[in-house]
Every structure is written in C-alpha cells, then in structure tokens.
Amino acid sequence: MKRNRPMRIDPIAEAKRQWTNHGWEEASPGMAAYTSIMRVHQLMLSDVEQVLKPLSLSFARYELLRLLAFSREGRMPMSSVVSRLQVHPASVTSIVDRLVLDGYMKRESHPTDGRATMLVITPAGSDICDRATAALNRESFEPFDMPEEDTNALIGILARYRKRAGDFEDPTPKPESLEEF
Predict the structure, then answer these.
(1) 84, 81, 83: which is closest to 95 by C-alpha?
(2) CATH fold of 56-144
(3) pLDDT at 16
(4) What is the mean pLDDT of each run of 10 residues along the chain (181 residues)?
(5) Where are the domains of the chain?
C-alpha cells in the first residue's frame, strides 16, 4: 500500500536514533531490522489483501488453496498442510472451515489412517485459486518495484535468517535455487 503523501521522516530511522540516544546502541540495529521487516510485512500484506479482496479471499485462504493446487492430486493430509504453512492447527482448521463453506475445498477420510483428514481442492477452488494467482502475478508480484539484484539479495538475506532460526534445513541434494544461500 503506497501512502498518498510519504512521511517527511523515516519513523524507523528516528526510532533507531532514539534507541541509541537512550543508551541502547547495541540493540538499535536489531530493533530497526525487526521493525523494518514488520512494517514491510504490513505493506506487502495490505497490497496482497487488496488484490484478493474482490475474490473474497484472504492471503491465508489463498495460500492454502495454492498449496493444494500445487500438490500432485489436489489433496493433502491436514497435518502436512499445517506443517507446510507453519501455522497453528486451529488456524488451519478455521481457514479450512471457511473454504469448505464456500465450496472451494472438501474434507475426506485419509485412505490409510482413520484418524487423519485429507483436504481436497474442488474445481471451484482450483478456479478461484487460478484467478487469484493471475491477479497477484499481474498486480503485485510482476510489478515488484525493486531491481533484480536487490530482490535476489533480499531473498538470500531472509533465507539465511530463516535457516538460522530453524525454519528449514537444506534438502539433499540442494536445489539450484538455494545454492547461493
């Protein structure tokens, strides 16, 4: 979301200056990094949500549909969805409930594990997911306003942070797209 009138100062740079002035100079770079990333998250999420709103989807609902659409058969165990989306099971259940209500997904019994539930994308779910992907590509992802070199550097920096935080491990063999991280 672009502001109609940009602020005259960078509030995060000012907060960093204040952190330093109050004797927290060692913490000020980390505070500025955290705060910057959280602000960028707000801006990007707002942008994506504006694109998805006409389709009555949130990013969380879209992400779940896209995950299922990418799967081989359009189905996945609920536990795998929870793991891949890295959100609490209760949050996934809430998202699934809404997608089922809208006819974009259905629940089925797991073929071999009577305790597990399979999530299955419906034809209507595939259709809305494809429309949402086209809109996001056109309105958010393709016009991403950052030089390719900066984009790649940002992806690498964030991947290294996520890896150190235990977000993922390198697969074996390592895919070419992760070679530089």
Answers:
(1) 81
(2) Arc Repressor Mutant, subunit A (1.10.10)
(3) 95
(4) 74 95 96 95 95 96 96 92 90 95 95 87 98 97 91 92 88 67 55
(5) 8-55, 56-144
Q: Which of 114, 121, 172, 135 shows the shortest CA–CA distance to 59?
A: 135
Does residue 64 contact residue 81 with C-beta atoms inside 8 Å? yes
Q: How many residues does the chain have?
A: 181
Q: What is the DSSP letter of 74?
A: S
Burial of 163 (0-12, 13-18, 19+ CB in 10 A): middle
Inter-CA distances, 111 with 52, 56, 158, Å: 34, 32, 38
Q: Which two tokens stand for residue 141?
A: 């992802």
Sole residue written with tokens 């209507």: 124
Sheet with 75-77, edge to edge strand ranges? 75-77, 117-121, 105-109
Cα–Cα distance for residue pair 52/70, rounded to 1 Å: 19
Within 10 A of 16 (CB to CB), how many other CB atoms are there? 22
Rounded alpha-carbon distances, angstroms, from residue 84 to 35, 92, 156, 177: 26, 11, 20, 18
